[in-house]
């Protein structure tokens, strides 16, 4: 029991871990053999709430040692005065540097009694009194520096105590972030004024009459948001004798730098290489002619704080004129964005996640985003011309430039990181922005307690802090990317309204700067989308600036904006449309890219809007299983009452799938093989469903089914290589059922086949669904449907070499499985002839290829840019592969494939074609297929010709992976180079004997 009592009364109960704690408490008179002294319970509780109880107690013990005479008074004050107790113990438990100051400066603890605390408005008077001295002459040199240092450190102690006190003593008011940074800034301003006074004293022997100097605060000091430990950025403006003004400036920097903080004048014109002091006219000339973008960003916070008030005021007035016109500079937004990226790259990768200031999700992310928005919109809206980041952020939210929720989240996150930064710097009064590593649990625990974070839900304080830090950093980064790289341009979006922020001319200039060619037309689209007071107009009013900026980064901003208007008007009654755009940043970004790149996508989107919701989830957009889709389509169509309804349902699902694939393709989520496979599977599913519906309808009409029917895919459909605009090449084969003859079977099957062709071929706004049976025996002059035996007889007796070549890509795709399988067995002997092709037939194939390529390339076009028939194009590769299949597939089973890339791989594996040659042919085939698909996506209509210039070329190059900063001509060079290399292989291999 005695041991339990001692444990309950142990100093460990109050959070002490140092073995010396009990001895220190006894020495202070706060601990007895029976445990805590009753009169000092409040002190012990306060110590237990300190960020580091051991540090706080150890510091008090040091103060007692150096000033034992004053200790009774201090001890009594700690026991009786809750405010003093909370402030002093909070400081001592958080900052070892301020503890050192209190130990070395006996009696300074009295500053922390509420009645003794200095109001920030008196900081300048107090520091000036410190350096001017009580005698006739002001202090100079080392004496002035030491006096200023002591005065500065005392006031800093007061600020820290007021900032931290509530953590230890909950009854104390918690100052706001703005109050703390405001006091720190006021202290810095007072220090600069005191330093300038010392400079005047040291230069008293010089003739300073007529010499004027103004000190302009920049950065955080200009914005009244200083840290505890920070450089203070300044610019000096002088008039009169500039040499004397420079001496005043340099002396001020020396005195303040040694006593208080480093004074950094590197933001002056020309940086450190420029003159330390310039006249107002000199500054004006520089900013008007030579200043770079980052300098205008820095000048946002310029504020006169010391020296000649009139000169400082004139300087600030001049700055206002140049700053708020800076956004009109060419590439202004890009320059600011690039500067942020450069700053970020300088952060070592191993520290990037811990850098509070410069890292991803750090303070600079907030500041850069806010400043860019200020500079863009502040030209017309004077309410945004604020120096404080927090004030500007609130103004941006109030003005609608940033969503209120986003502004609130950024404000909370920024304040949290600044608080963490303050507590880190207070620890040793060192300039640091590095968050502790996750393994530094002791440091994290002290930091968490200094902020006021306590354990929760079974998690330790350090774990809570780490989770909060990561959460806030991620939130900042997300919002930074949303705002900084897609800044809201409400000034453009609101042009059509009564409350114009920009004139029409200014809005047109802004659109032109963003890359819009027809700015008048763009303004009409904006007016149409934002007119009225409906909820739709309100949301569009918020969305459009984002859309405009995103579209500006696409190959066709004007076409993209028109497409956005059409899509928005078509879907204005769709309840979730604008909500998804407003709430899903990824959807907006991807949609803008699709609309500004492709003419096919918006045409499909207005009739398949549900795909829009997939844009936010790349896995769903690109990961759909082809078999699952085919099953879903067949099941849906099977439930329809007739062929028209069945085809309408099939078209709808095909449209959805076509748009899904197109979007995934444009966004780089599917490679070309996956695209062709997906498009082929769509066509197959549509054919299967339409055939089944037509058979059901015909069976009902004739009361039975006299025939089985199979559909054989040919060409690209057979090879599983369809593009967006490809027809479906097919053969129809039938076989009489028991009790019916071939004539009945063919009549029934022909009716079904014609029904399928007509139903699918009905005019539509979608890419056409044309079923092409021209590869059948005798071509268009032959019967649409033949029996299996008829096909067998025809190919055995009349079949030509081109038909055998066409059959190389034949595969069963729809209808009766057994009949389809037997058809494939029949044609295997035709397309894989025993012994291969004789020399006569080889020459015939070569002549056909030459004739086709000569006759079918459109006149007046560049033959090197024809993806199908051009040099090294699809025909070159496919004819080469097919000729070798005809010659060798009878002896090489691996060549019995309908897919061109698979055939090329098998040819290389069998040693028939050199591996490098096969690789070259495959690369070209994939490139030409991809370019053909991209051209269809960009133009909205099928074309074999690669665009040779203009926006279409830029868009196709972008789809192919060429960035917006790259010359699209490089894409054309690459295409020609690749196809030229493949054509050389074709010439060598195709004509080899």
UniProtKB/TrEMBL annotation:
Pfam assignment, any one: GlnD_UR_UTase
Cofactor(s) required, per the database record: Mg(2+)
Alphabetical UniProt keywords: ATP-binding, Magnesium, Multifunctional enzyme, Nucleotide-binding, Nucleotidyltransferase, Transferase
Domain PII-uridylyltransferase/Glutamine-synthetase adenylyltransferase, chain residue ranges per copy: 337-484, 847-990
Enzyme Commission designation: 2.7.7.89, 2.7.7.42
Region (Adenylyl transferase): 496-993
Keyword Nucleotidyltransferase listed: yes
Glutamate-ammonia ligase adenylyltransferase repeated domain: residues covered: 87-314, 589-823
GO biological process, alphabetically ordered: regulation of glutamine family amino acid metabolic process
GO CC term, one of those recorded: cytosol
Swiss-Prot/TrEMBL catalytic activity: [glutamine synthetase]-O(4)-(5'-adenylyl)-L-tyrosine + phosphate = [glutamine synthetase]-L-tyrosine + ADP; [glutamine synthetase]-L-tyrosine + ATP = [glutamine synthetase]-O(4)-(5'-adenylyl)-L-tyrosine + diphosphate
Positions of the UniProt region annotated as Adenylyl removase: 1-488
Keyword Nucleotide-binding appears in the UniProt entry: yes
UniProt-listed Gene3D superfamilies: Beta Polymerase, domain 2, Nucleotidyltransferases domain 2
Entry GO MF terms: [glutamate-ammonia-ligase] adenylyltransferase activity; [glutamine synthetase]-adenylyl-L-tyrosine phosphorylase activity; ATP binding; magnesium ion binding
NCBIfam families: PRK14109.1
HAMAP family associated with the record: GlnE
PANTHER family: BIFUNCTIONAL GLUTAMINE SYNTHETASE ADENYLYLTRANSFERASE_ADENYLYL-REMOVING ENZYME, GLUTAMINE SYNTHETASE ADENYLYLTRANSFERASE
The protein's role, per its UniProt record: Involved in the regulation of glutamine synthetase GlnA, a key enzyme in the process to assimilate ammonia. When cellular nitrogen levels are high, the C-terminal adenylyl transferase (AT) inactivates GlnA by covalent transfer of an adenylyl group from ATP to specific tyrosine residue of GlnA, thus reducing its activity. Conversely, when nitrogen levels are low, the N-terminal adenylyl removase (AR) activates GlnA by removing the adenylyl group by phosphorolysis, increasing its activity.
The family this protein is said to belong to: Belongs to the GlnE family.
The protein, known as: Bifunctional glutamine synthetase adenylyltransferase/adenylyl-removing enzyme
Organism: Amycolatopsis alkalitolerans
Gene: glnE
């Amino acid at each position: 029991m005695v041991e339990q009592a001692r444990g309950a009364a142990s100093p460990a109960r109050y959070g002490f871990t140092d073995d010396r704690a009990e001895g220190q408490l006894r020495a202070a008179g706060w601990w007895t053999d029976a445990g805590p002294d009753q009169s000092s319970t409040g002190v012990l509780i306060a110590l237990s709430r300190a960020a580091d109880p051991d540090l706080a107690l150890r510091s008090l013990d040091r103060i007692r040692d150096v000033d034992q005479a004053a200790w009774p008074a201090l001890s009594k004050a700690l026991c009786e005065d809750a405010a003093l107790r909370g402030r002093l113990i909070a400081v001592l438990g958080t900052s070892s540097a301020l503890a050192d100051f209190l130990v070395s400066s006996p009696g300074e603890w009295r500053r922390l009694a509420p009645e003794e605390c200095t109001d920030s408005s008196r900081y300048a008077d107090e520091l000036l009194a410190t350096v001017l001295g009580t005698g006739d002459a002001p202090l100079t040199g080392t004496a002035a520096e030491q006096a200023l240092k002591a005065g500065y450190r005392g006031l800093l102690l007061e600020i820290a105590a007021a900032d931290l006190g509530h953590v230890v003593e909950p009854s104390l008011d918690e100052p706001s972030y703005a109050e703390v940074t405001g006091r720190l800034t006021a202290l810095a301003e007072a220090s600069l004024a005191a330093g300038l006074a010392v400079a005047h004293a040291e230069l008293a022997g010089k003739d300073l009459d007529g010499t004027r100097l103004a000190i302009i605060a920049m950065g955080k000091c200009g914005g009244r948001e200083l840290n505890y430990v920070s450089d203070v950025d300044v610019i000096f403006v002088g008039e009169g004798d500039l040499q004397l003004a420079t001496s005043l400036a340099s002396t001020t920097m020396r005195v303040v730098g040694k006593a208080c903080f480093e004074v950094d004048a590197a933001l002056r014109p020309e940086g450190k290489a420029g003159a330390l002091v310039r006249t107002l006219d000199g500054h004006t000339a520089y900013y008007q002619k030579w200043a770079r973008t980052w300098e205008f960003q820095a000048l946002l916070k310029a504020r006169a704080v010391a020296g000649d008030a009139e000169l400082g005021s004139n300087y600030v007035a001049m700055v206002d004129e140049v700053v708020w016109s800076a956004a009109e500079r060419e590439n202004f937004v890009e320059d600011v964005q690039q500067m942020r990226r450069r700053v970020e790259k300088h952060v070592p990768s191993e520290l990037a996640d811990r850098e509070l200031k410069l890292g991803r999700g750090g303070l600079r992310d907030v500041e850069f985003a806010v400043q860019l928005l200020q500079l863009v919109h502040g030209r017309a809206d004077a309410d945004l011309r604020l120096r404080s980041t927090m004030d500007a952020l609130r103004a941006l939210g109030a003005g609608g430039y940033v969503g209120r929720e986003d502004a609130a989240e950024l404000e909370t996150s920024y304040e949290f990181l600044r608080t963490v930064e303050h507590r880190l710097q207070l620890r040793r009064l060192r300039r640091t922005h590095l968050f502790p590593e996750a393994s530094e649990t002791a440091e994290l625990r002290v930091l968490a307690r200094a902020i006021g974070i306590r354990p929760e839900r079974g998690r330790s304080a350090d774990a809570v802090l780490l989770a909060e830090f990561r959460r806030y950093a991620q939130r900042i980064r997300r919002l930074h990317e949303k705002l900084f790289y897609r800044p809201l341009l409400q000034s453009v979006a609101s042009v059509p309204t009564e409350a114009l922020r920009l004139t029409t001319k200014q809005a047109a200039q802004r659109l032109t700067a963003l890359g819009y060619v027809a700015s008048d037309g763009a303004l009409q689209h904006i007016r149409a989308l934002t007119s009225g007071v409906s909820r739709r107009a309100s949301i569009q009013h918020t969305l459009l600036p984002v859309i405009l900026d995103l579209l500006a980064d696409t190959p066709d901003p004007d076409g993209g904006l028109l497409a956005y208007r059409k899509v928005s008007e078509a879907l204005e009654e769709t309840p979730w449309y604008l909500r998804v755009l407003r709430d899903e940043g990824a959807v907006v970004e991807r949609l803008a890219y699709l609309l500004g790149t492709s003419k096919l996508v918006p045409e499909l989107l207005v009739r398949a809007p549900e795909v829009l919701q997939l844009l936010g989830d790349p896995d769903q957009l690109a990961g759909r299983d082809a078999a699952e889709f085919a099953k879903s389509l067949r099941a849906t169509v099977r439930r329809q009452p007739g062929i028209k309804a069945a085809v309408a349902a099939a078209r709808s699902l095909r449209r959805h799938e076509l748009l899904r694939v197109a979007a995934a393709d444009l966004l780089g989520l599917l490679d070309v093989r996956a695209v062709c496979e997906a498009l082929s599977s769509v066509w197959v599913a549509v054919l299967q469903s339409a055939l089944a519906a037509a058979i059901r309808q015909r069976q009902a009409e004739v009361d039975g089914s006299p025939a089985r029917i199979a559909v054989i895919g040919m060409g690209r459909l057979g090879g599983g290589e369809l593009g967006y605009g490809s027809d479906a090449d097919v053969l129809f084969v039938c076989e009489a059922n028991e009790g019916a003859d071939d004539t009945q079977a063919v009549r029934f099957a022909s009716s079904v086949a014609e029904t399928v062709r007509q139903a699918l071929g009905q005019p539509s706004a979608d890419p056409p669904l044309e079923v092409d049976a021209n590869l059948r025996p005798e071509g268009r002059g032959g019967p649409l449907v033949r029996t299996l035996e008829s096909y067998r007889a025809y190919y055995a007796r009349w079949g030509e070499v081109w038909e055998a070549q066409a059959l190389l890509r034949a595969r069963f795709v729809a209808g009766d499985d057994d009949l389809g399988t037997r058809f494939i067995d029949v044609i295997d002997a035709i397309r894989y002839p025993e012994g291969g092709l004789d020399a006569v037939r080889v020459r015939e194939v070569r002549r056909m290829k030459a004739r086709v390529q000569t006759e079918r390339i459109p006149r007046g076009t560049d033959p090197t840019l024809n993806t199908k028939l051009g040099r090294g194009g699809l025909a070159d590769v496919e004819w080469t592969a097919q000729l070798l299949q005809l010659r060798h597939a009878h002896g090489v089973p691996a060549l019995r494939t309908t897919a061109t890339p698979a055939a090329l791989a098998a040819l290389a594996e069998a040693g028939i074609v050199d591996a490098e040659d096969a690789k070259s042919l495959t690369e070209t085939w994939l490139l030409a297929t991809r370019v053909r698909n991209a051209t269809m996506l960009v133009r909205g209509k099928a074309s074999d010709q690669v665009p040779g210039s203009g926006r279409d070329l830029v868009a196709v190059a972008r789809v192919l992976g060429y960035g917006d900063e790259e010359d699209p001509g490089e894409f054309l060079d690459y295409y020609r180079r690749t196809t030229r290399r493949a054509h050389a292989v074709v010439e060598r291999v195709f004509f080899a004997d």
